[in-house]
Specification:
Elements: H1 4-16, E1 26-31, H2 32-43, E2 51-56, H3 63-71, E3 75-78, H4 81-89, E4 97-99, H5 106-115, E5 120-123, H6 126-129, E6 139-145, E7 167-168, H7 172-181, E8 185-189, H8 199-220, E9 227-229, H9 247-259, E10 265-270, H10 272-275, E11 279-291, E12 294-299, H11 307-311, E13 320-323, E14 329-332, E15 342-347, E16 358-363, E17 371-374, E18 395-400, E19 405-410, H12 415-421
Parallel strand pairs: 1-18, 2-3, 2-10, 3-4, 4-5, 5-6, 6-7, 6-8, 8-9, 9-10, 12-15
Antiparallel strand pairs: 1-11, 11-12, 11-17, 13-14, 13-17, 15-16, 18-19
Length: 423
């Protein structure tokens, strides 16, 4: 979690450099230093087996951030053809792009065959795989489903028996037949769920896919399956200052890969892990209402930016920092029972009753004009932006702690841009 001192500095610096003005009622701040720390840590894994480390675009598609990732030598994982084109525009080389959409159309497949040679394209099922020509110039992959719950929350679990994701791993003979038909099928892909830190469960699924790859190669009489895409989904810690370390999973996974007879290259697709702790949203408190003995903070960040938190209130714990209009730190909800705190409800700006990112938390007494900071907001916030009520998407400011620099990398939407969506 980013400290209040750092947040105060970033707010002051953005104000001094006139990157924010009175219309910027909510701003996403993103710490490039923290991003690069995570990237460097992951880059040290799977060196012996060979790895393509990618970052899931969908968790934070801001171009300025994608360019930072590409500059660091990482690839990008796309969940739509638009994201593939975003990866290319951000400067990502084709052989470092992984395309994973579960609903690729025939025209999208044709586009990949014609324009994306060298990239990894993972078919979600055998039905999709059979839409490809025999020769594509792609690294073809097939996503497998181990048909067992990963332990993630229901809306994030993608490995159950009725999941829309992946070919059931039990259909070995059908998968073998497909491998014989498609000689470019050289990758098996697994992604079991999101926000999961159960190393035992995640590693068990990876081992099953590796075992399947070895069995396929044995039956094929050649080393056709050469790469295992282990997906992403590793959890981040939203409830404290300690950040969960991917080394817990990757060290065990790396040791396993080194122990198998057939050497496999590895693809990783983390997203939330890189982004979540690197960002915070600073939202203005427009009104503070006294209702039934509690304070209702009507802010400019709600179900538009924190969609999951509003629609699934228990999706994750949230920590808030309250600042005055002068960016002076006033306190947090983190230490329940501390003196001077009052019961508070955090409301968003949208016109529906469920627009509450948090209810019943303890905060210092807020006033209109204060700034409420939503912590750990670098992933799946702006990326899930809801246009309900036709509000303008906020600006994004990238800052670097080491160089003491701040930069506007995405401007706040204008009303004209919002209206164009509906035309």
């Amino acid at each position: 979690m980013i400290t209040p001192e750092e947040q105060s500095w970033a707010l002051h610096q953005a104000h001094r450099e006139k990157l924010i003005n009175k219309d910027d009622t909510a701003v996403l701040f993103y710490n490039a230093t923290k991003l690069h720390e995570k990237l460097r840590a992951v880059k040290g894994f799977f060196i012996q087996t060979g790895a393509l480390h990618t970052v899931a675009i969908k968790t934070n598609p801001t171009f300025g951030i994608l360019k930072e990732i590409v500059k660091a030598g990482f690839g990008l994982e796309a969940a739509s053809l638009a994201e593939v084109k975003m990866a290319l525009k951000a400067g990502c080389e084709k052989h470092k792009i992984v395309f994973d959409s579960p609903a690729k159309t025939q025209s999208e497949i044709n586009w990949c065959v014609n324009h994306l040679k060298g990239a990894t394209v993972n078919a979600n099922c055998l039905e999709e795989l059979h839409r490809y020509p025999i020769r594509t110039g792609l690294h073809l992959g097939l996503r497998l489903n181990v048909q067992r719950s990963s332990g993630s929350a229901d809306f994030l679990d993608v490995a159950g028996a009725c999941s829309k994701f992946g070919e059931p791993i039990s259909r070995f003979e059908e998968i073998l037949k497909a491998a014989k038909t498609f000689p470019e099928l050289n990758t098996l892909h697994i992604h079991q769920g999101s926000q999961n830190n159960n190393v035992h469960v995640l590693l068990r699924g990876i081992k099953e896919v590796v075992n399947t790859a070895e069995s396929l190669n044995k039956k094929l009489g050649k080393r056709q399956i050469t790469t295992i895409d282990i997906g992403g989904g590793f959890a981040v810690n939203y409830s404290g200052d300690d950040e969960w370390d991917i080394a817990r999973l990757y060290t065990a996974t790396e040791q396993f890969f080194q122990s198998v007879d057939g050497r496999f290259g590895v693809i990783t697709e983390l997203g939330r892990y890189y982004h979540a702790h690197a960002g915070f949203v600073a939202a203005q408190c427009e009104y503070v209402l006294n209702r039934a003995g509690a304070r209702v903070l009507i802010t400019h960040a709600g179900a538009d930016l924190f969609l999951r938190e509003c629609y699934v209130p228990d999706a994750r714990p949230q920590t808030f920092h309250l600042f005055g209009s002068d960016y002076k730190y006033k306190g947090t909800n983190k230490f329940t029972g501390a003196p001077g705190l009052v019961e508070s409800h955090v409301a968003g700006p949208l016109c529906f009753g469920g627009d509450f990112p948090a209810k019943g938390i303890q905060l210092p007494p807020a006033q209109a004009g204060d700034i409420l900071v939503f912590n750990d907001a670098g992933a799946n916030t702006l990326a899930l932006w809801s246009i309900h009520c036709s509000r303008a998407a906020p600006s994004v400011i990238l800052y670097n702690v080491e160089s003491k620099s701040v930069k506007l990398i995405k401007k706040r939407q204008t009303h004209e841009q919002v209206m164009r969506f509906w035309q």
